Structures are given as structure tokens and as C-alpha cells.
Amino acid sequence: xxxxTDGRGNLSFTTINLPRLAIKAERNLMNFYHGLAExxxxxxxxxxxxxxxxxxxxxxxxxxxxGQGLYLDSEKLSPFDNIADVIKHGTLSVDFIGLAETLVALxxxxxxxxxxxxxxxxxxxxxxxNEVDKAADRYDLNYTLLATPAEGLSGRFVIMDRREYGLIPxxxxxxxxxxxxxxxxxYSITAYDKMRIxxxxxxxxxxxxxxxxxxxSPPVNNLGAVEQIIRHMRECDIGYAGINFPIDFCDGCxxxxxxxxxxxxxxxxxxxxxxxxxxxxxxTVDRFNDAKYAELIERxxxxxx
Length: 305
What we know:
- It is a single chain.
- By secondary structure, this protein is α/β, with parallel strands linked by helices.
- It has helices spanning 18-25, 29-55, 84-87, 99-107, 115-139, 153-165, 191-199, 223-235, 290-298; strands at residues 10-17, 91-97, 142-147, 211-214, 241-244, 247-250, 256-257, 272-278, 281-284.
């Protein structure tokens, strides 16, 4: 009941495989919503079970988070006290992945391709948020909806679904499912249209959300365009946004730039570190898992017009 953000944290999260529910529904929306409602109820129940397990821990079991008084009200506890009265301030997050593939399975088009699919996409996410809010009232805990970045699940879920349902064009035919409510990374769209489409979903994902645009090179010589895009993001109600662009480092001579070949244009060495932004953080490409590397290869840049 307190409107504070300090001293809170996400206790547990579980991701719902939206594309699988859509595949099983066979383009019947009533069946899809029925399956989604059941899965949301099961997920919330499972998160509550995990919460009950966590609530049995003592301060001494979490010496940094609780013992150092980092969690709200934890400074009132002694080392052998249960943490139940403290972790109630945290969140239990219901996550979702693959809205784009879900819409293709249900309508034949994702939300970047078709305005009716965009309307349905918002209805689906709004439905999930409403059910999660009901769970918060029912359990008297901070249940929230998370637009998951899916670093690992994006590949694992699609492998499972391809094994079960076969190769479905636009759904299981890639090595990954699209993050949360994002427009597919290989779909040609302007930065402005992408933000306009994705912006409507941010307000529902109260546990976290992100949208990004992809540039082909660092925009250091066109800061005016960056400002215009940021202002447009704000107008589209984007809560958290990123601007992606490649940065390559030569370990041999220290050259920094976009290196399109296998060798440094300055010293010809092949020792190059390629840094890219995957979901919410920067990483060298060699540390990406197979699904996220496949996604990276298929990403196209977003122009202004």
C-alpha cells in the first residue's frame, strides 16, 4: 500500500508461452482466451506456492539482501526472524513472450502487418494485465505483468513447440520467439511506426517493459535525429526505450568503429570484439546463445522514413 519503489524487488517470475496457446486454439479466439485464462490462474497459483516457500526463509539465509537492510522493513528483523513480513513488499511477475507469433497463429498477421491484429494484440495484453490485477487482490500480494526479454526461453520454447506442432510459417519457423510485444526483428518498419505500434503495450506491463530501434551505425553525427526519435518515443507512451547500434573493437590496434569484414581495416588483425545490445544489456556477440545469435543475424535497421 505504500507508494515507494526503494527496498522492493522481484521475488519470482514465470513466463507464459503465448504462441503455444494460440497454436492449440486453432484460430478460435474463445478457445485461446479460455486457455490463456487457465494458464494465468495456474501461473499465479504457482507463484504463490513459490512465495510461501520463500517466506519460510530467515534473515540469516539472505545475509546481503535482508541482513544489510536493503529490503523494505528488513532493518526491523533480527538474523533468526522469518522474512515473510518483508518479502510481501516484493513482486511476483507473470511474464509473456511471442505476441507477434501468437497473432500470426490466430489471424495470419502480426501487429506490424495488420491493424486488426494490433487491436487484438492490445486486447490480449490488457486481458492478461486484468487477470494479474485480480490475482493481486485475491492473494493480497504484488502480482505484476512483465514483458519478458526472454534471453533463454526464446529459443527453448520454439524448439519445444516445433517438436510438438511442426513447422508453422511465421510461428515456429525461426530459431526464436519474438520478445514480449515487439514487432518481429526482421520486419521492415520505420523507427516511428515501430514505436507507435509497441507504445500501446507499455502501460500494461507494470513489472517491466522495453522497446528499441536499431541503427546501422553509431548516430554521433546525427544527434538531431536521435532527439526526434526520443521525443517520438515519449509521445508514443514508451516507458523504457533503447537505441541499438553496433560497436566493434580491434584488440590489435585499438580501432573502434563498425568493422564489416573479418579483419581490422587499420591493422588487418582478425582479433575483433563485436559488441551488440541484446534485450537490456551490452554483450560481445560470442556470448550470445544460439537463439539470440540467430535473432541478431536477422535484425534489420529502422529508418526514419
